């Protein structure tokens, strides 16, 4: 009798070495990843609506870099390092607010900058020799608004459109730009940021770690990420058994405690998208978006240290859903928060085992082909000029 | 008039340089000592009775290395790094417990290991190319059970029998294997682990630091560790004055508040051992055992950082002592805890003075000849291949 | 029409580069500044009156160096590293106290030192070969008492008289040696010590940061430090308008909430000093003294880390002022504490902005000529052999 043929996932049939174990806790490697990855890619900040009004601002820390976002008078969003060019003071003290004047005034020595970052005047009565205001523009940071989401890139980022694993218009049917934030969750996980993404990128752990989710999404219960990952998929193409077909268990339409949708479903979704029940769109290293039939989930992560990561989850809804008295937010939040807590636990366990001296690196199995893609992306980013 | 002859202790008549002062606080030196000393010697974990049942387990951290101890089905104790070979997750979350099945199952992706550490199966349906389960045995750690004590050695340890300063059978009269833990104390001291051992290895500090102990043990009150350290010992060989003879003050038989023994004394002790009243047996770097006439004291230390050390004291008794209604535990614990607190205070003071820039190193006096032996052992360990 | 002539401050007409931004947070640079600046200059400890009695002692930490100050039997103040020469234990445990005997006795092994630091005896019965007590003098530290102030210098400090920006007798009219401490404030600021001194050394920030102080001291309200900094000063030499003349607003005589003096003014001040209303005398890196007409303010700073500094403010008064029932301490303390809190806030803001990657260094404007002098002094100290 012939041995089982080896698994084949997206072309991967062999075991592959994981990343060096100390990349997950070494402070020097962490600093390197901040500088090569986090400071050189588009990082998700939050929804445009939080900085909608002219002169509104927001600040965010990416590692030890503090970004100041300001909506200028013409409605354009600007981003700068939150640092005065004079002696380096932070310009805005609060995480968010509204500028009192049409200028950014340093609270230390009152240097005045336009909302476009030009130095308009110093506090000195006349200009000293060798001082040209044009040399003292605020340090510019790239900013993109897309579908109501704000992203910044400190330096040298690739084109924004290439920052996702799907075409930028993939979720257009959801009308992302019109959705509003109905709920926000924040959670700190004691693990390296890469541990989070590895967990995100495979479902080998799903049957053991996510019993409820594995019931809701049968293919996850089979430790697979997608329909096409099932070697028997082709055999069952005509079969109606959801076990072999992706999508949710019979009777469920969305990710919630009871599988039922909140008050309203998005009207323009394709039949395929409704059946899939979750379309993931990933923007490394800081975020992913999931389109469900009745809500959109947005997860942002930010590294707080070599072994600490902050997660923030935003739940987006159509405005009419939030206004609907029948709308049951807990049905959604309790379910997705359960899944996130289960993942957080195993992410922290993963972190805890990595320092064993003989453990030079782990191993990536064929089913974890997206983890391998993640590792390849990380290694390429660390090499990128 | 001739000068006093110089002191002579165990052949030591000259002052000797201490270790470099920064060895007591420099993080790089601390890391080096972890790797060369703590990871390459037999480290005391605890009593066998805590992992007596088949499938019971315990975990312990030695520096940043997490050890998993498991009693297998045949009664043999096994030790592994608490790290799954797949992606490095910690295998057991709790400090101690009972495995539900006769296997170690990783809580992340459910890789299954036998209690001997063999990888039995992964969560992948078939094995990928180039994957041989035999390459993924759990990382083995040496383990020894001796007289009811469990020791582990991460790598390259000397033979266990050479890990003590006395022959392994020296305390056999106490029947160590049959004793039970009647009390446990834990204490964190803000000092380097070597400071603790230096304090342990001399009694120059006893008269000033331990007034009660110095009364109980007259030779300690004379700043000496042992009878033979007294240059006048030979002169007083026939003398009955306990001041010159070791042992305890008249009327006392053990280390306790009133010098009286708890309910029962060990029956098989020699007259010499009863008179000595404390037989110390030391297993560097992690523990010592003291045999008293009515109880055994076991002290374990573990380094928590360059300037922090954890002490755990176990008090062992004959089972019938613990069952005896007259048994007065406080009489013992209050006394030994007083001595330990006095030592902890001066150990912390010692640590506090070491950073003075001109203080390149201290000096070891002849009476501190065991401190010199300790330093020699440390230097030899740091050189050992 | 000709352009405005450039500002000229004390010869400075050009903008000057600031110090490298990472000098304000890099731990290695911080260590270097401790060793080259803080351990090699006269550091203010406190008032002599705190160690007035023979055998009284005090300890202070300068970075990680612990200094022990002791008044000997002859009234001379001595300073040593708080470290025993035997095995390095700290000699005195408390921040201040009174020695019980006329000797310093190590609490660990009872080595005994004279109050002049000589090793008088060890705890060993006789001296070992190669042991000469003279080799084990306590580690000496330089100490100076001047006008009731105590300063120490660990090593290699310049002559004390050159440690101030003014002649040592400049504040003699205040009778500093006879003043007593009426109040003490302590505050921890989250900034590098150099940020504090930069803030101290310019008044460009005064109009925006200190509204009350700017009202009290008109020239501060014009963003100037001193009369002579005003280019129009010469034009107004005959003018009585205080705006152009330094000193305080009309009707005020001192720094207090209402501008009025506490019960008594110092009798011997010159008319010029009364008019100036504040004479600053600065002893880098650790202190400054301000003479007001009715009190003296002394500010000590000590670095607690690369990004943390401790301030301690002492308010000195004539003894008869403190005894006067009409004396209103709050009038002084509430005002100066307000100014100090305003400065602390902007110092912390300054620190927060410095890590922006493109911010290699800031810029020093001509009005900040004393900041440039500070930077020059720091750079020279770091080069000093």
Walk me through what this model shows.
Three copies of one chain form a homotrimer. With 385 residues, the first copy, chain A, is α+β, with helices and mostly antiparallel strands. Chain A is 22% helix and 25% strand. Chains in contact: A-B, A-C, B-C. The A-B interface holds A 4-7, 13-15, 18, 21, 24, 198, 204-205, 207-209, 223, 346, 349-350, 352-359, 362-367 and B 35, 39, 64-66, 81-91, 93, 107-110, 122-131, 136, 139, 154-155.
Provide keyphrases for this structure.
alpha+beta, homotrimer, Rieske Iron-sulfur Protein, 17 strands, about 375 residues, Naphthalene 1,2-dioxygenase Alpha Subunit, Chain A, domain 1, seven-stranded antiparallel β-sheet, five-stranded antiparallel β-sheet, 2 domains
SSE blueprint:
The structure is a homotrimer of 385-residue chains.
Chain A: E1 16-20, H1 27-38, E2 43-47, E3 56-62, E4 65-71, E5 77-81, E6 96-98, E7 103-105, E8 112-114, E9 119-121, E10 140-146, E11 149-153, E12 180-189, H2 193-200, H3 206-209, H4 211-216, H5 218-221, H6 271-276, E13 279-283, E14 287-291, E15 296-305, E16 308-317, H7 319-323, H8 329-353, E17 361-364, H9 369-383
Antiparallel strand pairs in A: 1-17, 2-11, 3-4, 3-6, 4-5, 5-10, 7-8, 8-9, 10-11, 12-16, 13-14, 14-15, 15-16
Helix pairs in contact in A: 1-9, 2-8
């Amino acid at each position: 009798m012939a041995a089982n043929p080896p698994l084949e996932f997206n072309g991967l049939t062999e075991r592959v070495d994981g990343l060096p174990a100390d990349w997950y806790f070494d402070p020097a490697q962490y600093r390197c990843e901040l500088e090569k990855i986090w400071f050189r890619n588009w990082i998700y900040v939050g929804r445009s609506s939080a900085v909608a009004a002219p002169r509104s601002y927001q600040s965010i820390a990416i590692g030890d870099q503090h970004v100041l976002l300001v909506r200028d008078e013409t409605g354009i969003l600007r981003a700068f390092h939150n640092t005065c060019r004079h002696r380096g003071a932070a310009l805005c003290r609060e995480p968010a607010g509204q500028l009192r004047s049409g200028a950014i005034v340093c609270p230390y020595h009152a240097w005045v900058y336009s909302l476009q970052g030009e130095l308009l005047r110093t506090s000195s009565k006349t200009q000293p020799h060798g001082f040209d205001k044009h040399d003292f523009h605020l340090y510019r940071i790239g900013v993109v608004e897309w579908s109501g989401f704000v992203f910044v890139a400190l330096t040298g980022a690739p084109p924004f459109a290439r920052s996702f694993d799907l075409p930028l218009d993939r979720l257009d049917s959801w009308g992302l730009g019109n959705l509003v934030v109905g709920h926000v969750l924040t959670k700190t996980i004691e693990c390296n940021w890469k541990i989070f993404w590895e967990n995100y990128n495979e479902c080998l752990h799903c049957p053991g770690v996510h019993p409820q989710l594995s019931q809701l999404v049968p293919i996850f219960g089979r430790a697979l990420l997608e329909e096409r990952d099932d070697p028997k998929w082709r055999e069952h193409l005509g079969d109606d058994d959801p076990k072999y077909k992706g999508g949710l268990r019979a009777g469920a339409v969305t990710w919630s405690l009871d599988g039922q949708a909140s008050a309203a479903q998005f009207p323009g979704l394709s039949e395929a998208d409704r059946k899939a029940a979750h379309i993931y769109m990933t923007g490394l290293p800081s975020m992913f978006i999931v389109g469900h039939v009745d809500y959109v989930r947005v997860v942002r992560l930010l590294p707080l240290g070599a072994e600490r990561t902050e997660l923030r989850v935003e739940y987006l809804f159509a405005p009419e859903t939030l206004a609907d008295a029948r709308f049951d937010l807990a049905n959604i939040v309790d379910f997705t928060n359960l899944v996130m807590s289960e993942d957080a636990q195993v992410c922290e366990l993963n972190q805890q085992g990595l320092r064993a001296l003989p453990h030079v690196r782990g191993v990536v199995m064929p089913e974890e082909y997206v983890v391998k893609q993640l590792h390849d992306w990380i290694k390429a980013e660390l090499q990128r000029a």
